[in-house]
């Protein structure tokens, strides 16, 4: 059974940085399409960043230039480095593997 466990969220101020982690079990992150989504209260889930099996990356326009997705095969972990955070980045950040396995998410709150 695939398990994805996110961590690294927290409450920060605008301009601060955070690094989110997603540790995978029973799935190799380097052999999977890995995606970070986010969902804010009352809003639809939004794809933030993805990395394909061949290391192609994609970023939404809202985060391009500020966020970086990466993965470590030895630790079997997916990361999301988030710089210059803005209040509109406030959401629950959810890790997804192959568009079918989901974590519970980690909350990020950015105050102005």
Class based on secondary structure composition and strand pairing: mainly beta
The biggest beta sheet, please?
Answer: 7 strands, mixed
Q: In percent, how much strand structure appears in the residues?
A: over 45%
Q: Could you list the spans in which at least 5 consecutive residues all have pLDDT below 50?
A: none
Q: Count every helix, treating DSSP H or I runs of 4 or more residues as helices.
A: 0
Average of pLDDT: 97
Question: Helix and strand string, N-terminal first?
Answer: EEEEEEEEEEE
N-to-C span: 40 Å
What's the β-strand tally? 11
Task: Write out key terms for the chains shown.
seven-stranded mixed β-sheet, four-stranded antiparallel β-sheet, single chain, mainly beta, 53% strand, 112 residues
How would you summarize this macromolecular structure in one to three sentences?
By secondary structure, this protein is mainly beta. Helix content is 0%, strand content 53%. The model has no long low-confidence stretch (mean pLDDT 97).
What does this structure look like?
By secondary structure, the chain is mainly β. The chain contains no helices and eleven strands. Strands 2, 4, 5, 6, 9, 10 and 11 form a seven-stranded mixed sheet that branches. Strand 7 (67-72) and strand 8 (77-82) form a beta hairpin. The radius of gyration is 13 Å and the shape is globular. The termini are far apart.
């Amino acid at each position: 059974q695939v398990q994805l466990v996110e961590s690294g969220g927290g409450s920060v101020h605008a301009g601060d940085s955070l690094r989110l982690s997603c540790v995978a079990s029973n799935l190799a992150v380097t052999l999977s399409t890995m995606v970070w989504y986010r969902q804010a209260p009352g809003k639809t889930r939004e794809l933030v960043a993805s990395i394909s099996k061949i290391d192609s990356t994609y970023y939404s326009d809202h985060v391009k230039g500020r966020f970086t997705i990466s993965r470590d095969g030895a630790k079997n972990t997916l990361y999301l480095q988030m710089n210059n955070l803005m209040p509109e980045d406030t959401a629950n950040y959810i890790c997804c593997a192959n568009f079918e396995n989901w974590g519970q998410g980690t909350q990020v709150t950015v105050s102005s």
